[in-house]
């Protein structure tokens, strides 16, 4: 089996709704970065994953658990993006943790805790013949001078989630299936499959950590990759 595939192990006994509520609330109750050690959020994420392997939530049901139900795909997989948050204790403020849920052709539920911190607001299917790929767009405060905008691509293959496709190739920002840049807004045209990157006019300069002045540019999705338009 390809190393690119994140296997979904059979679900253990799902936690109760109360256990999820308590875990999410406990994480959110910490202040001054006490919960921002990486491990605590992962543990809560695993509990949320276990619950979502047995339950498909509406927005109101998610809210009762302390989760936010974000965008949902309109295809057979019904890919759903959920998040829960905690405080960083620093200038970042709120940190968003992301879990995705989907179903296979038999209606079986699967879920996975994504290794990314962003509040995803939109989801788009990507045109990739013979493949099921999606683009997630979101943002997350990185510091007092950086609002990080993120484009994140994932692929579904039945019971499996593929996260290590080499999707982006952008100077100083290539990171497999994720592209995050400070103060650079990202908008997607689904009909043309074009991702536009422009100065967001944020708290700091666009592409804050780059030594070179930022210039707006566009990426087009072709043959499973985003490539830069001239």
Describe, in plain words, how this protein is organized in 3D.
The chain is mainly β and 230 residues long. It is 14% helix and 40% strand. The chain has three helices and 14 strands. The protein has helices at residues 17-28, 39-52, 59-65; strands at residues 5-6, 68-72, 80-87, 94-103, 109-113, 119-126, 132-143, 146-157, 160-162, 178-182, 184-189, 194-199, 217-222, 225-228. The strands form three sheets. Strands 1, 6, 7, 8, 9 and 10 form a six-stranded antiparallel sheet that branches. Strands 2-3-4-5 form a four-stranded antiparallel sheet. Strand 2 and strand 3 form a beta hairpin. Helix 1 (17-28) runs antiparallel to helix 2 (39-52). The termini are far apart. The mean pLDDT is 89.
Short précis:
The protein is mainly beta and 230 residues long.
Structural Rg: 18 Å
- Strand pairing plus helix content: what structural class? mainly beta
**Largest sheet, if any?**
6 strands, antiparallel
Number of helices: 3
Shape by Cα distribution: globular
Helix content: 10-25%
Order of helices and strands: EHHHEEEEEEEEEEEEE
Low-pLDDT residue spans: none
Strand content: 35-45%
End-to-end gap: 37 Å
């Amino acid at each position: 089996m390809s190393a690119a595939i994140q296997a979904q192990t059979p679900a253990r006994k799902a936690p109760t709704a109360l256990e999820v509520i308590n875990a999410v609330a406990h994480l959110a109750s910490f202040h001054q970065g006490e919960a921002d050690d990486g491990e605590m959020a992962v543990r809560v994420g695993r509990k949320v994953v276990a619950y979502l392997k047995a339950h498909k939530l509406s927005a109101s049901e998610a809210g009762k658990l302390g989760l936010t139900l974000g965008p949902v795909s309109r295809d057979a997989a019904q890919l759903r993006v959920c998040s829960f948050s905690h405080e960083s204790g620093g200038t970042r403020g709120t940190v968003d943790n992301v879990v995705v849920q989907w179903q296979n052709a038999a209606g079986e539920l699967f879920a996975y805790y994504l290794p990314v911190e962003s509040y995803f607001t939109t989801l788009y299917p990507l045109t990739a013949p013979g493949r099921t790929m999606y683009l997630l767009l979101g943002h997350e405060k990185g510091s007092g001078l950086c609002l990080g905008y993120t484009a994140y691509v994932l692929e579904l293959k039945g019971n499996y989630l593929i996260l290590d496709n080499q999707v982006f190739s952008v100077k100083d920002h290539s990171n497999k299936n994720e592209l995050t840049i400070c103060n650079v807004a990202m908008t997607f045209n689904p009909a043309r499959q074009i991702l536009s990157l422009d100065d967001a006019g944020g708290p700091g300069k666009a592409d804050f950590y780059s030594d070179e002045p930022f210039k707006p540019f566009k990426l087009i999705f072709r043959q499973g990759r985003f490539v830069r338009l001239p």
